[in-house]
C-alpha cells in the first residue's frame, strides 16, 4: 500500500473539503428553502472567501478580514490593509489633540468634541461608560465619513442634472431671483417659498440614489416577516433603490409638486433610509443641499461645454453611486 504525501494529499483534502461544503449546502437548501425569503441563502463566510481576487490581494484581504475580523488584532495588520483609513485616523487624532489643547472646561462647549470631552471627564473612573477617548475618535471618524462623501456626491449629481435639463435650471434660477434676488445669500427660511427648487433638490436625490443598498443591519433577535423566519444575527440589506426607482410610484415628471405647484412630501422618498436608524445627519444634509444648490444657481449658469456631447446620466456604482465623470461650463450670471 502507498501513503499519499505532499501535493497529492493537499489536492485530496481540498477536494474533500469542497465536496463536504457542497453536500452541506444542498442539505441546508432543502431544510431552509421553505423558511427563508427568496434570494441567496445566508452563507456569508463562504461567499466572501470565494470572491478572492488574486490580481488585487489587498482588496481581497479586506474581504477576508470582513469574514474573520479577529485577524484585525494582529499588530500592524490593520494599517497595512487599510492605509487610507490609517491616514484619515491620523488626521482625526491631530484635530482632537488640537481640541484638547485649546479646550477650556469653564467655557460653554464650542462643538461636539468639546461636549463629548465634558462627558469623558464626568465618566472618569467608570469603565462601563461609553464616553471615552477611543469612542470620541470613532464618533468623529463616523461623522466625517458618513457626512462628507454623501453630501458632496449628491452635490455632484445636481449640476449634472441641471446641464442635462436646462429648462429646469432656468426655472430654479427664476424662483431664486424672485424669492432671494441677487444681493443677499440664501437662507433656510427661503425654502418655504421655493417649492420648485425644493422639488428639484428632492428629485436630484431620488435620481442620484447614491446609497442604493442602504447600510447593512443585523437582526438582534429571531423575527418573522410576512411568514419568513429570519434568525438572530442575520445581515439584512435594505434595497432603498427599489423604492426610490419604483416606477409604479414615481410615474409623473414633476414628482414632488401638486397640481397647484406646492411642494409635496412623498412617502417613497427615502434616500436617508427609514425607521429608528434613519440617517442621523438628515437635517444637516438637507440644509447643506439647499444652501449650496441655491447659492450655486444664484451665481452661475451651468452648461455642457461647447462642442462636447451630452454627458451620461448613468451612475458609477462604488461604495456609493457617483455620476460618471463629466465636465461643465460655469458662467457667472
Ligand atoms: C445627502 C446626504 C446623505 C445621505 C443620502 C445619507 C444617507 C444615509 C443612509 C442611507 C444611512 C443608513 C441608514 C440606515 O442604517 O438605515 C445613513 C446613516 C447615517 N448617516 Fe447619513 N446621509 C447623508 C448625510 C449625512 C450627514 C451630513 C451626516 C452627519 C454629519 C450623516 C451621518 C450619518 C450617520 C451617523 C449615520 C448612522 C446612523 C445610525 O446608524 O444610527 N449623514 N445616512
UniProtKB/TrEMBL annotation:
Top-level taxon in the UniProt lineage: Eukaryota
Keyword set includes Transport: no
Keyword terms: Endoplasmic reticulum, Heme, Iron, Membrane, Metal-binding, Microsome, Monooxygenase, Oxidoreductase, Transmembrane, Transmembrane helix
Q: Which Pfam families match?
A: p450
Q: Which family does it belong to?
A: Belongs to the cytochrome P450 family.
**Topology relative to the membrane:** Peripheral membrane protein
Question: Where does the record say this protein resides?
Answer: Endoplasmic reticulum membrane; Microsome membrane
Name of the molecule in the record: Uncharacterized protein
Amino acid at each position: 500500500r502507498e501513503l499519499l504525501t505532499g501535493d497529492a494529499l493537499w489536492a485530496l483534502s481540498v477536494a474533500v473539503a469542497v465536496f463536504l461544503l457542497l453536500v452541506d449546502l444542498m442539505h441546508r437548501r432543502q431544510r431552509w428553502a421553505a423558511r427563508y425569503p427568496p434570494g441567496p441563502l445566508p452563507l456569508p463566510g463562504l461567499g466572501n472567501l470565494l470572491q478572492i481576487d488574486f490580481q488585487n490581494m489587498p482588496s481581497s484581504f479586506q474581504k477576508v478580514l470582513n469574514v474573520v475580523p479577529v485577524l484585525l488584532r494582529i499588530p500592524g495588520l490593520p494599517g497595512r490593509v487599510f492605509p487610507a483609513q490609517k491616514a484619515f485616523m491620523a488626521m482625526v487624532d491631530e484635530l482632537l489633540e488640537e481640541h484638547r489643547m485649546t479646550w477650556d472646561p469653564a467655557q460653554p462647549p464650542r462643538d461636539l468634541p468639546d461636549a463629548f470631552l465634558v462627558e469623558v471627564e464626568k465618566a472618569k473612573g467608570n469603565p462601563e461608560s461609553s464616553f471615552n477617548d477611543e469612542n470620541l475618535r470613532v464618533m468623529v471618524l463616523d461623522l466625517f465619513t458618513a457626512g462628507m462623501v454623501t453630501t458632496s456626491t449628491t452635490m455632484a449629481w445636481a449640476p449634472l442634472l441641471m446641464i442635462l435639463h436646462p429648462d429646469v435650471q432656468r426655472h430654479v434660477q427664476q424662483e431664486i431671483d424672485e424669492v432671494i434676488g441677487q444681493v443677499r445669500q440664501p437662507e433656510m427660511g427661503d425654502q418655504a417659498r421655493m417649492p420648485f427648487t425644493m422639488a428639484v433638490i428632492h428629485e436630484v436625490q431620488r435620481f442620484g440614489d447614491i446609497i442604493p443598498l442602504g447600510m447593512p443591519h443585523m437582526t438582534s433577535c429571531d423575527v418573522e416577516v410576512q411568514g419568513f423566519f429570519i434568525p438572530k444575527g442575520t445581515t439584512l440589506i435594505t434595497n432603498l433603490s427599489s423604492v426610490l426607482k419604483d416606477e409604479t410610484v414615481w410615474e409623473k415628471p414633476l414628482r414632488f409638486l401638486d397640481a397647484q405647484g406646492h411642494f409635496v412630501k412623498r412617502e417613497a422618498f427615502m434616500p436617508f433610509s427609514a425607521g429608528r436608524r434613519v440617517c442621523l445627519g438628515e437635517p444637516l444634509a438637507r440644509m447643506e443641499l439647499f444652501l449650496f444648490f441655491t447659492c450655486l444657481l444664484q451665481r452661475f449658469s451651468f452648461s455642457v461645454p461647447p462642442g462636447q456631447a451630452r454627458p451620461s446620466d448613468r451612475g458609477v456604482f462604488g461604495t456609493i453611486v457617483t455620476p460618471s465623470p463629466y465636465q461643465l461650463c460655469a458662467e457667472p450670471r
